[in-house]
Write a structure and sequence with these properties.
This protein has 625 residues and is an alpha/beta fold. The chain contains eleven helices and 28 strands. Strand 18 and strand 19 form a beta hairpin. It holds the Pfam family Pkinase.
């Protein structure tokens, strides 16, 4: 173990090397006393625990190496205090959380090696401030989001490895500005779009790997200009068209192009030859297509106008023929279009299943991603669920409700076409090991849900009771904004009703006492369920985990306010966090709101208007942390 007394070494000590010495235990906080250290190397040991916040006291530190250990916890903001830091090596550990946004303020950084950890979140755009950065290694993590265009500001960088992550969307064209870049690996991500033509500007590039992604389009012929390119791997993508044959492509292996959609070219790449064509034939073909399109347009435009006019007059004369969601829809999508969009409801597109049916991801011809909720018509209750959702969603409009694009209904098929939520559900983020939400993200998501319920209970002409509030029904869009979904068992209250009876039961663990015992539902039942979900979100404990007389609500209430750390999700704070007490106070305040929501008596429960107000105040409190 590293002795605490190491912190009592001479303050004039400038270098501390203890690499590959089989040292175990934690890094003593007293290391922060060695204020004149220029280099600290503890790599290749068996160190555990988190990086001490006292490291931020080493203002002169230039090289920081803790790689190849068993460190956990977060890369805290205290790293950003090291304004003279030139190299940081934290790879091959078990570090969690996201990259500190303030890392972009350490403008002296030249080397960042954080590969083989458990980092999540995206790359902060502020990294674009690191004008002297030469190497950036974030490989083998769980990082998500899009690659920021600010990456093109790293003019000095020669080595970038972002492989083995979950990055999505397109490769920014700004990356082509990196004329000193020699090595770029983006393999094994979820990148989409095409290969930017700007890649041809990276004149120093010798190694480029974008294999195992979802890249589509063609390989730009301009890449033939890259004279130093020795390795170019685009295998396992969705590329098509001709493989360039000039310049560096003369010496590339056929293995670099396998498992694509429809590549063609030279036989040495083991692909079929491209169709022969001349410029003259190409121009003639374009003219023929143009005349054909004009001819079809001259015929179809009058017919289309006539058809629209007839349809308009019919709908106007018989409003009962309108779709059940006509006031809420902006377009109609046919049954056959839905089949095409979802690849005939293939299992590979299945993104969820529920009591009354299944949800599939689809992509329309307009390239719009959708979620298609298909009801299981073998269940009689599914018919009622479909009708209920249509009735309830017809007039609802709120940024925190999942948007219904349209419905599709015939004798054998009933479906709702919904806005696609690329980040899945709150349940996934709480319980999957590959995802993490910090305190601010969890509070923001639960505030979004509270706003949705405030609208349903107090902002509609007739109050709506959702009846099934739980994490799997909270969906997250690309910006991590929460949207409440699944109104299959919801209820509309009449003008003279404050509650009603129902035989439909919600999910066990979230059910209000009066709902479960007597079938009596009111907006206060949603408040109760919301309170349970708020507790679950910050404890990461499912209400169904508890047995006997103890439940989630009691377990938390017994520990507040003094022992909040015993019940909250341990991943939210670290013992060495210098803002620990403030964060504990914030979480205690959140849990107090949750307990106010789920008291036994419906009359004593708070309402969602007050919940929104209290959470907004806690947000301000959190900003001060």
């Amino acid at each position: 173990m590293l002795p605490v007394s190491a912190g009592n070494l001479s303050t004039s000590l400038t270098m501390f090397y203890a690499s590959s010495c089989n040292i175990k235990g934690r890094i003593p906080n007293e290391f922060g006393n060695l204020r004149n250290l220029l280099e600290l190397d503890l790599s290749g040991n068996n160190l555990v625990g988190s990086i001490p916040t006292s490291i931020g006291n080493l203002k002169n530190l230039q090289r920081f190496n803790l790689s190849d250990n068993k460190l956990t916890g977060f890369i805290g903001d205290h790293i950003c205090k090291l304004q003279n830091l030139g190299a940081i090596y934290l790879g091959q550990n078990q570090l969690l959380g996201s990259l500190p946004n303030c890392l972009g303020n350490v403008t002296s950084l030249r080397l960042i090696h954080l590969g083989s950890n458990k980092l999540i979140s995206n790359i902060p755009p502020s990294l674009g401030n690191l004008k002297e950065l030469i190497e950036l290694d974030l490989s083998s993590n769980n990082m998500v989001g899009s690659l920021p265009p600010e990456i093109g500001n790293l003019k000095a960088v020669t080595h970038i490895d972002l492989s083995m992550n979950q990055f999505s969307k397109g490769i920014p064209r700004e990356i082509g500005a990196l004329q000193n870049l020699e090595y770029l690996s983006l393999r094994h991500n979820k990148l989409q779009g095409s290969i930017p033509d700007s890649f041809s500007n990276m004149v120093s590039l010798g190694y480029l790997d974008i294999s195992h992604n979802n890249i589509s389009g063609t390989i730009p012929m301009s890449l033939e200009k890259l004279q130093h390119l020795k390795y170019f791997n685009v295998s396992v993508n969705k590329l098509y068209g001709e493989i360039p044959s000039g310049g560096p492509f003369k010496n590339l292996s056929s293995q670099f192009f396998i498992d694509n959609e429809a590549l063609c070219g030279s036989s040495r790449f083991s692909v079929p030859p491209c169709p022969t064509s001349s410029k003259h034939r190409s121009n003639r073909k374009k003219m023929l297509v143009l005349f054909l399109v004009l001819g079809i347009a001259l015929v179809l435009v009058p017919i289309t106008f006539l058809f629209v006019w007839i349809r308009y007059t019919r709908v106007k004369s018989d409003p009962q023929q309108a779709d059940s969601l006509s006031t809420a829809t902006t377009e109609r999508i046919s049954y056959y279009e839905l089949l095409q969009a979802t690849d005939s409801l293939s299992e590979s597109n299945l993104i969820g299943s529920g009591s009354f049916g299944s949800v599939y991801k689809g992509v329309l011809r307009s390239e719009t991603a959708i979620a298609v909720k298909v009801f299981n018509l073998q269940l009689e209750a599914a018919f009622k669920s479909f009708d209920t959702e249509c009735e309830v969603l017809r007039s609802l409009r709120h940024r925190n409700l999942v948007k219904v694009i349209t419905s599709c209904s015939n004798l054998d098929f009933k479906a709702l076409v919904l806005e696609y939520m690329p980040n899945g559900s709150l349940e996934k983020y709480l319980y999957s090991h590959n995802y993490f939400l910090d305190i601010r993200q969890r509070l923001s998501i639960m505030t979004d849900v509270a706003c949705a319920l405030e609208y349903l209970h107090h902002g509609c002409s007739l109050p709506v009771i959702h009846c099934d509030i739980k994490p799997s029904n909270v969906l997250l869009d690309e910006d991590m904004v929460a949207h409440l979904s699944d109104f299959g068992i919801s209820k509309l209250l009449g003008e003279d009703e404050s509650d009603l009876y129902t035989k439909t039961l919600a999910t066990f663990g979230y059910i209000a006492p009066e709902y479960g015992l007597d079938g009596l539902v009111s907006i206060k039942c949603d408040v109760y369920s919301y309170g349970i979900m708020l507790l679950e979100t910050f404890t990461r404990r499912k209400p169904s985990e508890f047995e006997g007389d103890l439940n989630l609500k009691q377990w938390v209430s017994y520990s507040l306010p003094e022992a909040v750390m015993d019940v909250m999700d341990a991943n939210l704070v670290t013992p060495m966090d210098h803002r620990l007490q403030k964060k504990l106070d914030v979480v205690a305040s959140i849990m107090k709101v949750a307990l106010d929501c789920c008291v036994e008596s419906p009359a004593r429960r708070t309402n969602m208007k007050d919940v929104v107000g209290m959470l907004q105040k806690i947000k301000i409190q959190l900003l001060a942390c």
